[in-house]
Amino acid sequence: MSNSLYPLKFRPILKERIWGGTKLRDIMGKQFPGTSGKYGESWEISGVDGDVSVVQNGFLAGNTLNELVEVYMGDLVGETLYDRFGEEFPLLIKLIDASETLSIQVHPDDDTAHQRHHAYGKTETWYIIDAEEDALIYTGFNTDISREEYFKALKEGNLEQYLYKVKAVPGDVFFIPAGRVHAIGKGVLLAEIQQTSDITYRIFDWNRVDGSGKTRDLHIDLAVDVIDFSKVQNPKTHPLEEVNKTSELASCKYFTVNKVTFMNSIQRDYNMLDSFVIYLCIEGECSVIYASGQSEKLTKGETLLLPAELKDIILKPQGKCSLLEVYVR
Question: Mind telling me the catalytic residues?
């Protein structure tokens, strides 16, 4: 086998969470370590310190993502991105299963995160894969609210009445810029595409306690300086699914997320793109054909990193297949 780059698969990093469930296994095909445990997150591709993804396919198996960026540089991530981020991989891709409602939280922007934590901020996008009948997403405020009103609501435990609540439906997309308060509601399974950052300020945790009766830490003081208190406008989109076409779900300076649904083989030409591409399979399965006919299979729940040097790809489905396609413009 030649030692050139190829589509990379990584070992999922599973996270036990107080609010987790079993959908990552039951719907997305993840292998849980052991029979019990509530797993809330599967980190599919991560360059976060202490949680760096490890390759599981091909001759690079066993190497970490950061080691690959160090060796392959622009060939892996794209020249512009390597100049911008160096050896830090710029995106974190997760699958999240909320069997309980997550805390109400907010993330700082780049400037604040850099000053306080020497880290990047966190802007993210959610794609709803599965949702129970009454599942909700909380995102932003449903009215303009002052700091005083906010603190009063927190103290009285009724912040929820000021939050914009939306019924979660599979196929919904939520773009959540840094500074927007948000929470994933009970019964939601989603894909999260975000900046490489693990900084979360927890504002309210529904008075929840863990197995030993302890509440989780809140970050009220850190959070207040980064919150956008203005009323949110139309926080969700629900793109129409067109077979054999690409729909753009979200695009910002940090990432672009498309959905590609196809029943016939389609060609992807990335010659004008100076970026890696990530495929997250959310339905069905396909083969990713590259470099004179070699291929890598991708099934529901799996994620693949396409190095920037691979420009011409054929996606060949088994029946109907849907992928999230992620890159940095």
Answer: 202
